[in-house]
């Protein structure tokens, strides 16, 4: 089930709302919550829009929508489709209620803390098993799980990998490699010229001289 | 020189002690014996704070802290601890950080851009007494003298892309500011307001009408509970011999009751819906409150399991934190925390009496510590026709930052009782309190906070944890020396980090700067008798509860003797030998009177007449009332109404005009007069036995004074001019103080009930009342002790 939810602004990691958890959840998830704050700081406008990050016994699922990141921490065995449907519901409601206030300058932290009542009610919906199976059936076609990138938290922490947009990167890579191929071919050709050019020219001049000597006399 | 005097003069409200045109403090010495004390001077502002020139970097009038927020017992600090010892004056601070803002008060300025400049070594907030160096690029902390970088936004606003004038910044111009706290100051999102009512529904509670009054009052106050963000949560638990929870989130709109009878291990019957959002479940809640009295009106249960109920309540709201309001009309007698009737009239008046004033069970203190960890505050409303063990039950509010209200002999049949309770509960629910707060007082190098008095929990030496900060509660802190002071001014900064009632995390900073002196005369001329009394009251209560009441009284008397003795020895011409008269400086002249008031007060008085409940409650008020209310509580205001000037009781330029306060002596009582005495908790109207029938007709609507009924009454509203004026005066008395207590009116007839008469006369502290001395006898006693100093 969804253990906790955090909503923040992407540009400066300013927290906008969070679910209120009881003491047991707080203690369990203290370390995960600080990792979540780290994730917020690493995010920027070019980051992957939907991603799941595995860490220990829990998984972080997040989506970025209209400059706001919605993150939830779930157990590993919770179906990803449902987590992302939950986050989609939250993002729609949040944008509808507070969308135009997000970029207000001088916004204070947890300015939309009152969103927690909606989060609480939605979370309860997603905990009920009967609703779960309905939703699973409904959303099977809508979510293409393979499009969601999966990463590992350790990679993020220790190897410093980024959550950049792979699609964009791979397009760029394609263009770059095509250009590289062309340039490489050009350079190869030039090298060929430089290597064989002078002897061929000398040979050609020599043949010309002999031809001229033999044919003119 | 004149400019300095003008600046210093404008720092006070009106002409205060020590203000004269030369700018020096030249407070005269007055003789105490042989004159009636000038009680009008109780309302004077404290002595002027004479800081060296240019101590504050702007010329703002608000650069130093207003006394109603924070005041020191000494407005000039001794430079060495030996000097303080020699002067025998108590040194401490009296702080009311979350004072209410009534009309006519300025609101606290708020720094909205969250640029918080703090010293990197001692973590002091920037204040009007720092120094800017290096052309304004760095600032020098006035507590530890470290140089710090000035944040770039002090001169340039990045949002509007415009330069700003740093000298207009609020934190450099005001001593009391509030910052909007950024994320680093929060461990979790700001909590919403949570009110959980734990209501006693046993037979005594229904009999005295507490249940009906409480249900109606809560119903009517639902609109006044602050709910700006729609996040406020409310829940109800009722207790008799089992615990009843109410599901308020049912689809049908009918509340559902769930009963838990297991008192050994109380559990919550369902995980959700016992505490609901006020907006969403409002109809169901109103339904429940309307039916609450009917549900229990035929109950015969006399058991009350408050302990297990409080444990369940704590379990219910500990994830969020909040307030538990406990309305209790019986002594808890089931489950953990059961209390026995331990009131023993034989112990009253003996040295064993203080055992009755200490907690009878450690259950409540342990629960209080648990509550304080999870930001839960407990308030107690106690109604007792019999012994209610206020001493034990008030432990919970004491360590969680709450409040205790006591209504002895409450019956809703008396409309005055019901009105008082309803008014106080409604005001209490509508207060904009602060939540999940911590408070710390920092002082310049060489001083440290040594003792803390008030309703809070002390965590880690000097951090005070207050799960809820009610409005107008006062905290006293004693200050002691670590090193001698070599600096010309010292600074005391109080920071209160809290969540406001509308969900914003804020920091309220109060800064007080005081000059340092090496002269004993300066110390005495800058002492603030009101602050000294407040601090001594808290200390006396603490001593009375932990040791004996005799010790507390002796400590107060000895302190008075010491102060008079030092003044005589060092500061008057006749330094040794007997004097014909006691002398003290003008700003301290009422200290013996206030000390006598404390000695004769219900809280500390000797004798065996005072039940421990009343004494415990009076002690609680001694430690939490702000100075504005504590001084009238110790020295009540006494007015003569039958011959008051024509303009008294009418609406004048500054509101309703009050008559002049008189000395508290029965010499002032006239046989044909009408007098009013008020001590911020009760209002007494004394009717002389020869009062003219016209007076009784005008005021009470009855033909002669035999038909006037004594005791608790509501003044009738009649057409006569006199009645109108008296009603206005009574109304003004109820409103002019900052707290939410609603004094009741008692009519005392000179020839009426002797118990009431004695009660009234016990407030006239200048009189002799066996075995206590009169004021003049007390002065004589002090003089004898001082002469043998």
UniProtKB/TrEMBL annotation, chain A:
It comes from the Eukaryota. Keywords: Coiled coil, Endoplasmic reticulum, ER-Golgi transport, Golgi apparatus, Membrane, Protein transport, Receptor, Transmembrane, Transmembrane helix, Transport. This is Protein transport protein SEC22. One of its GO terms (molecular function) is SNAP receptor activity. Signal peptide: none annotated. It is a single-pass type IV membrane protein. PANTHER family: VESICLE-TRAFFICKING PROTEIN SEC22B (PTHR45837). Gene3D superfamilies: 1.20.5.110, Longin domain. The lineage of its organism: Eukaryota, Fungi, Fungi incertae sedis, Mucoromycota, Mortierellomycotina. The chain crosses the membrane at residues 196-215. One of its GO terms (biological process) is protein transport. Residues 6-119 form the Longin domain. It is found in: Endoplasmic reticulum membrane; Golgi apparatus membrane. Its main location: endoplasmic reticulum. GO terms for cellular component: endoplasmic reticulum membrane; Golgi membrane. InterPro entries: Longin-like_dom_sf, Longin_dom, Sec22, V_SNARE_CC. Belongs to the synaptobrevin family. Coiled coil: none annotated. Residues 134-194 form the V-SNARE coiled-coil homology domain.
TrEMBL record, chain B:
It comes from the Eukaryota. GO terms for cellular component: COPII vesicle coat; endoplasmic reticulum exit site; endoplasmic reticulum membrane; Golgi membrane. One of its GO terms (molecular function) is zinc ion binding. Gene3D superfamilies: beta-sandwich domain of Sec23/24, Sec23/Sec24 helical domain, Severin, von Willebrand factor, type A domain, Zn-finger domain of Sec23/24. Residues 657-727 form the Gelsolin-like domain. GO terms for biological process: COPII-coated vesicle cargo loading; intracellular protein transport. This is COPII subunit. It comes from Modicella reniformis. The gene is SEC24.
